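[Q] Does anyone have a clean structure-token version of this?
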Amino acid sequence: MGATGSGKSTFINMVSGSHLPVGDGLRSCTSDIELSEPFALAGRTVVMIDTPGFDDTTRSDTDVLKMIATFLSRMYQDGHKLSGIVYTHRISDFRVTGMSRRNFTLFRKLCGEDTLQNVIIATTMWSEVSAARGIAREDELATENLFFRPVLDKGARMMRHDNSYASAMGIVMQLLPNRRRTLLIQRELVDMELDIAQTTAGAELSRDLGEQAREKREEMEKIEQERQEALLAADIQSAQELEDEHHEAAAKIKTIENKQMGLAGTLVTLLAAGAVSLLVGQVIAPRHRRDSS
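[A] Here you go.
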């Protein structure tokens, strides 16, 4: 898992010898869940799972969460658990944005605190920064509470992936001996039979969407105030432009509200609504009955 353009698909291809689609920019290339070719490692058969990021450019965060949650839960129903999770993060990012923190928060809520010791944060894009700058950023990420320190304190690890086969394989080898664990989202949807909106990750996403809607409504109020002032000043052109901005903000609020409304469904209804069950049943179950990373 990880942000769009952080090297998830490239990492999987390098380790597994697969040919998953790889983008050449920040536009999403992985918009669906993809599985690597199975490969043998240390006497085990391993399959890696490539997921879209929560900042996907072709799907909403609501759709991405439902897709990942449904896939992982159906996999859990079939008796599969993950040996580990790799979260990729670009060391080349000048700063950790609010979007990056939001993505990682959703990832953490999806996994749950009890599975963090099976998580490796793989820093990527080391060739795009000087060694000194990369090390400084790595230290900041590992020691600041706003970034990765809280999960590292709970057993997650951070490792460098320098785009070499050796570093990629080293990360996977660290995960392979792990005791396979059930993710929080799997327990919530399968064992507790919660609606996805009631899950920890779903509640976090709903809260975030609500905050986005609140900010947009405040923006609309300011735009309307400015429009009224423009009308009083007989500035018709500015008033029209502000009215257009008001309509755009209203449309964005409607989109956010639709995302909130779409964040609903138990595992049964989610499976009935999409083709994820077919992917799990036809791809994982017959072909890969051992270990997944």
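[Q] Thanks! Anything notable?
[A] Residues 8-59+79-182+274-292 form a domain with the Rossmann fold fold (CATH 3.40.50.300).
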